[in-house]
Amino acid sequence: MALPQTIPLLGWSWDDLIFVVLAGVMLGGALMVVIGRNIIRSGLYMILSFAALAGFYVLLGAPIVAAAQVLIYIGAISVLILFAIMLTQSKAGPSNLVFHHQAWAAGVAAVGLAVLLLIVILFTDWPAEVADGVAAGTAAIARLLFSDYVLAFEIVSVLLLAAVIGGVFLAKREEALDPGERQVDEPTLARQPPPDRPRGVAASEGP
Amino acid sequence: MSQSLDAYLILASLLFAIGTFGFLARRNAIAMLMSIELMLNAVNLAIVAFGAYVPALAGHGALIALFVMAVAAAEATVGLAIVIAIYRNKRTPLVDEYASMRE
Amino acid sequence: MDLTGLPLLTGVIFTPLIGALLIAFVPREREALTRWLALGTALVTFAISLLLLPGFDPAATGFQYVETADWIPAFGIQYKLGLDGISLVLVVLTTTLSWISILASFGPIKSRLKEFMISFLILEVGMIGVFLALDLFLFYIFWEVVLVPMYLIIGIWGGANRIYATLKFVLYTLIGSLLMLVAILAAAFSFQAATGSWAGAFDFEQLRGFGFDPTLQFLAFGAFFLAFAIKVPMFPFHTWLPDAHVEAPTAGSVILAGVLLKLGGYGFIRFCLPLFPQAAHEWAPLIIVLSLIAIIYGAIVAMVQPDLKKLVAYSSVSHMGFVTLGIFIFQPQGMQGAILQMVNHGIITGALFLCVGVIYERTHDRTIAKMGGLAAPTPVYAAIFGFFMLASLGLPGLGGFVGEFLVFLGTFDYSPIAAAIASIVVILGAAYLMWMYQRVVFGELSDFLKGLGHHLTDVTPQELVTLTPLIALTLAFGVAPGLILDLIQMPVGEVLARVGGPLTGAAP
Amino acid sequence: MPFFTEAPAEAVATTGSSLDQLLVIALLALPLAGFGLTALVGRRLGARAWIIAVPAIIVVWLAALYLIYQTLIVGAFGDAGMHFRLYEWIPAGDFHVDVNFAVDALTAVMLIVVTTVGMLVHVYSIGYMAHDPGRWRFFAYLNFFMFSMLLLVLADNFLLLFVAWELVGLSSYLLIGFWYRRRSAALAAKKAFIVNRVGDLGFGLGIMAIWTTVGSLDFGEVFTRLPGQLESGAIQPWMMIGICLLLFAGAMGKSAQFPLHVWLPDAMEGPTPVSALIHAATMVNAGVYLVARANPLFAQAPEALFIVAAVGIFTCILAASIALTQKDIKRVLAYSTLSQLGYMFAALGVGAFVPAIFHLVTHGFFKGLLFLGSGSVIHAVHDEQDMDRMGGLWRRIGITHATMLVGSLAIVGIPPLAGFFSKDEILGESFKLGFVWVWAIGIVVALMTAFYMFRLMGKTFYGPSNVDPHTEPRIHESPRSMTVPLILLAVPSALIGLALGLPPENGTIHHWLEPVFRPLDEALHHGAADYQILGIDGFLLGASVAVAAVGMIVAWRLFGFFRLGPRPALVSSVTGRLRGPYVFSLRKWYFDELNDLLFVRIGGVVARGLWWFDVHVIDGAVNGVASLTQGTGRGLRLVQTGRVQNYALGIAAGLLVVAVGYLIVAR
Lengths: 207, 103, 508, 667
What we know:
The complex is a heterotetramer.
Chain A: H1 14-35, H2 39-59, H3 63-88, H4 103-122, H5 138-145, H6 150-171, H7 179-182, H8 187-190, H9 197-203
Chain B: H1 5-25, H2 29-53, H3 60-90
Helix pairs in contact in B: 1-2, 2-3
Chain C: H1 8-24, H2 31-55, E1 64-72, E2 77-83, H3 85-104, H4 113-132, H5 136-157, H6 162-195, H7 204-207, H8 214-231, H9 240-247, H10 250-275, H11 277-303, H12 308-328, H13 332-363, H14 379-392, H15 399-414, H16 416-423, H17 425-441, H18 447-450, H19 461-479, H20 482-499
Antiparallel strand pairs in C: 1-2
Helix pairs in contact in C: 1-2, 1-4, 2-3, 2-4, 3-4, 3-10, 3-13, 3-19, 3-20, 4-5, 5-6, 5-10, 6-8, 6-9, 8-10, 8-11, 9-12, 10-12, 10-13, 10-20, 11-12, 11-17, 12-13, 12-15, 12-17, 13-14, 13-15, 13-19, 13-20, 14-17, 15-16, 15-19
């Protein structure tokens, strides 16, 4: 069944409809991420927002980016964040105060930033619309990736490796320190109370 | 409308502003990280949009977006690991409690 | 043996550094080796400093054994060393007190021995360097080198309140020395502006002939004055001294009183007066008044100190007042007396701190009120302590007298009233020292000391080895002060010639 | 050929033969070596600690006798005496001081007293200190004192004299504090030293004044040039007076003249031989010696001499009035010493220098004798010094009693004993030189002297025994080493006046000392008037003997004499009637209380106040600067919350400000 060229009543093209829906979903999801009281729901809204974003990439003629968005953001990062949320929600629970007391200032700053960006965008003469053919295909991107950007590609791979190792190291449960090492006679420090040592020791037992 | 660069850029800047607000206002470290992801995505959206509308950037925009994603993944990995490590010591994910740097 | 070809000055400065490096490679457990290596280094340094004596010509003008090498040629900064009689006397004093202090810390220093010895040897490098540097920049470097090890020595091996004391010491001294750095740079820039070249802009021998602009002189003198006055320390910049002494370990106190305070007096004579002669005349009346206050005030405050080390520290304020007084009356007897007083104060007060250290080792206390009757259980100690007590109050025939008397004499020449005021200290000095001695040594053995039982032993042979050379020197310089006076005659004359002779009498 | 051929410049004198020089050096070296050896090995010598010290002093005595003989009898060194230089001590530019020595008539006369009394005291101490475990220290200190005292009389310049001046003060300090466990001894030692230092302060300033005006400190040069400068107008008369008064300040300290007299009575805390040697016969005379030595200067400053006379005679009567009521045997003698020193200064002040030195000599012997005798008494009654707990001892300790009686008669001035000649010369000269008030006070003091001396004799030796019953049976005469020196001192106490003082005012001692005091005689213009035994001099002589006799007789009546019993009831009725003066005298005119208030209390308050000032104001300012810096830092640190989001907000705000600013500017 063929759809009409424009949406009845509104006079929008279908593209426009998709754009508006996606934009609503993305911005709504993002807003729910930052103002939601339940952190797990925030994570889920973030997935929604990311999914909407992937739609935009398709609209913009970059399906490979859309695919990557789904795989990396929704598939990897969001899941990682959800795991982290589950790891860090102790029984004490999130405090009622989701927001910092500087939240009002943050709001002002965010609105100011948005206004500023909008001014910049609206007062700038952007290049005119271009032909469809400009949208690069996957093959073209791949060619670029392994020619002009090969160095950056390799560096990013190293960076990822480093991040993986770093992540593992940081998240690894710390072994209890050798008690002998802590007892070294340190005359300079002997008169000061040990900084937060009791809390540190308790924390190393972990949740 | 859907064919204009302005629309995408406005969308990206709104998303960025929302992310900024989240980063500045949330007390939970993971929420802050999520806000950062939002901001990165806003940037990505802008980059891809430029790639689609500026002939000289054809293909390059998408590629840069891919790189940003890779870096964002690395950032998320390390950031979350740090949050977990601090959480072990401080027993809280709330950043206002992480003030030991001040002494 | 011809020693003129060897770079003896570099040798005497850096021998302790070599020793420090060697000690760094000694395993921590080998404490005996560390100790003996440190002592050996200090003794070798002492020996090298003695080698300077036979080749030194007391009748020659200018500097001897001069060594010069370019260091930062772009700014005319040189590695330039040299010595005259004043430096020579103080260098030998430093090397003597250094080995004595190291030997004296064999027992008391129990933790981090290696680090202590390394700090101490580096301290020696700095002290000797200050006395030998003829380049202002080099001088400044050595001046600051002294600060760091002393900071550690007080801060790590000190008493209960050591952090406060050492911070106060370092910050106080740093304020002064940073201003001095500014003044050095100002002088160098002014020299460069006048001659159009950086060559010699930091060279003391070039600068001292250069007549600086009066305003610059006045300000630069002020900056130098502050640095040196804090180090001396002059009233009212003296309050770091009692705190530092009380907290410092014995060896630290010995070096602090024996050498570090002399750096200030030396700086006045070597740099302040020849570089800024006009300003010196403008500043002199103020400095003389401050010195007189310090002399009397230090003695009065010493009288009521409850702690032995504090008492000796305040007595240092009083004694060092003579040094500044003697320097700034611009009169040959006064300045010779001031230098003699520096040397003798170094020996005598160093020895007094060693004596206090001997008590402290046994009692772990320095409160005068808890002492009493030491003469009976520790007669040798009481005799030695008494000897230095008498030397400190300026008993004729012992070291302290001649220097004090020469300063009085010069002051009398300048103003009899000033001399009369200063000489009140003759009474006050006797009063506080003898009162202290009476309370510590005479009377019945106090309950506190009785409680120590057999731990209250007389001086050990090792302590005797540290004290005996000082007794000998005190006697020698009392009976034959010519040993020093002959060496400093010529340089004092040179300095005074540059400053422009005695002040005219202010009052009858 | 002498060893040291250099004499001080301008001294037109012989350097002496090498033997003479050797002996002078031996005079100093032997006691010094004795001190060093005894101090080092004395503890191992045990009871024989004297084995080094005493022979050393005997040799010194013999050497001194030879030098005295050479100087006074043979006249080998001429009028100016012998001078030689050992080495240059302080070479400081145009200020240079030598270690140089001189032996002239004045030195020789001083040597007679110092070495003779010194030697006898050393011998006496063998017995007196036999049971003290610290005797090795005692003998070491004694030898050190002898060294210092000999240096004092041999020194040929002011600074070396000053050195010796302080060293005798040190020996005195060490010996007063000999029994250091006793708090009172330690305090007395300290007091002696510090009070002496007050005088030394003046002395030191005087030396500086001399150097700045003359440019030299050698006696010869100073004594010739300074009066010359005064004549030529190079210095003002007031400067000369000032110099003399500063020197006299030193003399006042050492010789315990008012108001610096407070240390001497307390100095009796030391062992009795020390009191005899240092605080009666030798060291306290140093002030007299100094003024006498500097007579060419004092001759040019009559105003200074007037003050000397006034201070001397005031001290004289002050001390005598206190001596009247003291209970401690040694304190009576100490105040008596003060009083006699006052006589000497009065004599110096009126210009009678030879009688002053003459009295110094005779007083040295009889007061040394009296102190040693009191030591023997104290020894006999087992360390009791309170005269109320003595009495009736004359039968038990005969030799001590006999010798002390000789000493008392000598000090009282009964002819023909030593004190008669010297004291009479002082009083007579005062009167004849126009100082009638000095004479009048002197006569009153002579009366008091006679009274308190025989009060002492009466309470100690006569009447019923008040000795502690436990020690009563154990009273015994002292050993021979103590009694022999007593006898040997009694002989000169009795005879030296006859030997040196006849004929009156023109005796041997006048001939000896005439060259030394020639500048003074020339300046004061009094040619020796003929001595008129049947005129004025006879009257004066009669007056002083008469008052002495009256004083003695009153004392006998009140306190007993041989078999004549004391009358305690009469004594208490007199003291009761004169309650006020009695207590005033007993409490020593409240000088100790005054000093305590002035120096200990007020001084303590001042010192504590300054310490408070130091800690709170000066250090407070320093710490104030520090805490101000710290406070500023703390205030600024509030910005550094340590919370990332605060910083991020700052970044965002900053970004906005910059961007808005840019937009505005760019527009």
